[in-house]
Amino acid sequence: MTEPGPSSRSDALVFFGATGDLAHKKVFPALQAMVKRGHLNVPVIGVAKAGWNLERLRARARESLETHGGVDAAAFDKLSSLLRYVDGDYREPATFDLLRRALGAAERPLHYLAIPSSLFSTVVAGLGRSGCARGGRVVAEKPFGHDLASAQALNRSLLAVFPEPAVFRIDHYLGKEPVENLLYFRFSNSVLESIWNCDHVDSVQITMAESFGIAGRGSFYDQTGAIRDVIENHLLQVVACLAMDAPSSGQPETLRDQKARLLQAIAPIDPKNVVRGQFRGYHDEPGVAADSRVETFAAVQLQIDNPRWAGVPFYLRTGKRLAVTCTEVLVAMKGPPRSPFGETLERPNYVRFRLGPDVAIALGVRSKTPGEAMVGREVELLASQGVSDEMDAYERLLGDAMKGDPLLFAREDAVEAEWRIVTPILTSATPPRDYEAGSWGPAEADRLVGGAAGWHKPQAAPARRSS
User: Fold this and answer.
1) pLDDT surpassing 60 at residue 2
2) Which residues, listed in sequence order, are joined to residue 298 by a DSSP beta bridge?
3) 3-state SS assignment for residue 298
4) Secondary element (H or E) of residue 364
5) Long-range residue pairs from 179-186, CB within 8 A, at least 24 positions apart, any chain
6) For residue 231, which of 263, 200, 186 has the smallest C-alpha distance?
7) How far is it, in rounded angstroms, from Cα 129 to Cα 166?
8) Architecture of 174-391+411-448 per CATH?
9) Active-site position among 172, 234, 283, 456
10) Would you say the CATH fold of 174-391+411-448 matches that of 10-141?
């Protein structure tokens, strides 16, 4: 992959929503990490409407780091020296005039919209009117709209001010090292790629489970739900990484072409192939409507309409307050035509990708059980295992956006394809099924998965050893 030249690197970083929750949890830790690696040495301008000043923003940054990862004295001092602050209403032209002055001589600013998508159009229009967008780039935080029509409207508003190569639609899941390794492992090992098709694969399951609840985000979550929050973006992107054809090169656009082509081949999900759930106690969460029918769990079956994957079901499942916290992929292989030893095999072979919080790539095979009888047992061959201590996704993605590297960002056609896939199941007259906290969701989800093996139940992550 060709690295963008230094002349294209952003010479200022502006982040809208500087006083918000996302900045507190993710942005400030990412900025300190970038400083520590020597990847950030340009003005960092926070913008918000809070009645704050620069010293209050610096104090907020310190609070963030004390809570999320710790303060590195030298790096924090450097970050503090780079920080600037603009306070103002996003609807007021004067706010963007102040920003233009704060940018000074910067000619290639990166504008990060760490704000609700309902404000994207307002902010981007202000950047265009004030000249702040000239020569710059924009990073749009997920969720990118709430349905296909709103995503298309957002794209129109962004592209009215920024050209497509300057638009970076962030999905932090794409910045995770295990997701990148999924692509690398697939296309760098011919032994796997040669069997990665409908002739050999029986089914694919992807589970993104969280044992915690909505973590005080009731007002947001009750307008979003599991389908919009996870399936439309994170899980469909994992499907694309798993199922896309090999790109002709490592160039960002050739890879993104293949991802978009795969997503466009997925049929819209049939409402009969979805099960929605809601954990008991959800209605007691602050900010949640007493009669809410928003799903905290969703399981779907989808089909990819192309020759490689014809007839192979893909099962996706996500939820809050489930048995464990993890993201795991299980690719079940077809069994031999017959077993000469008379065994009935529920899941003959499989490939397992553990994407978090720990990381593993494993092959499930059969091995003979010691003794006289020709009977076997399932064993795993670990190709890779470890704890996910890689560069944080936000650090990676903000750094890539500043370099102008689009590889790990979603393109307009891919985002719209994702919304088209989930459109039939965004609204449903069927109420979500109740499930107990700590379970694997409503029992009705079991009907989606055929065969004796049923849903794969990932194990909890191993406890970290103390040093």
Assistant:
1) no
2) 276, 318
3) strand
4) strand 358-368
5) 179/237, 179/238, 179/241, 179/355, 180/408, 181/359, 181/361, 181/384, 182/238, 182/241, 182/242, 182/329, 182/353, 182/355, 183/241, 183/255, 185/353, 185/361, 185/383, 185/384, 186/241, 186/242
6) 263
7) 17
8) 2-Layer Sandwich (3.30)
9) 234
10) no
Q: What's the burial of 386, exposed, middle or buried (CB within 10 Å: 0-12/13-18/19+)?
A: exposed
Question: Which residue is associated with the tokens 């300190």?
Answer: 32
Average pLDDT, the chain: 91
pLDDT at 5: 40
SS (H, E, C) 183-203: HHHHHHCHHHHCCCCCCCEEE
Each residue of 437-454: pLDDT tens digit?
A: 999 999 999 989 976 678
Is the bond into 143 cis (omega within 30 degrees of 0)?
yes
Please list the helix, strand and coil fractions of the chain in percent, rounded to the nearest 5, in that order: 40, 20, 40
pLDDT value at 335 more than 90? no
159-197 pLDDT, tens digit per residue, is 999 999 999 998 888 888 888 888 888 888 888 888 999
First to last CA, the chain: 38
Q: What is the per-residue pLDDT for 6?
A: 41
* Backbone phi and psi for residue 145, each to the nearest 5 degrees, phi listed first: 90, 180
Q: Note whether 228 and 426 are within 8 A (CB).
A: yes
- Domain limits, the chain: 10-141, 174-391+411-448
Greatest pairwise CA separation for the chain in angstroms: 84
The sheet that has 314-319: what strands, in order across it?
A: 376-387, 358-368, 349-356, 326-333, 201-209, 314-319, 297-302, 274-279, 433-435
204 is written with which tokens? 């694919």
Residue 357: is the preceding peptide bond cis (ω within 30°)?
Answer: yes
Give, to the nearest 10 degrees, the angle between helix 28-36 and helix 73-82: 110
Could you confirm whether 456 is annotated as catalytic?
no
* Span 141-156, average pLDDT: 91
Q: Who has greater pLDDT, 312 or 337?
A: 312
- Residue 344 above 70 pLDDT? no
| Gyration radius from the chain CA atoms | 23
Reply yes or no on whether the pLDDT at 389 is more than 70. no
Q: Which residues contact 12 (CB under 8 A, 6 or more apart)?
A: 42, 43, 44, 45, 103, 106, 108, 109, 110
For domain 10-141, give the CATH number: 3.40.50.720
Residue 401 to residue 12: CA distance in whole angstroms: 12
Cα(323)–Cα(316) distance, integer angstroms? 16
φ, ψ dihedrals at 354, nearest 5°: -95, 120
Q: What is the pLDDT of residues 102-142, one digit of tens each?
A: 999 999 999 999 998 889 999 999 999 999 999 999 999 88
* Residue 78 backbone dihedrals phi, psi, to 5 degrees: -65, -45
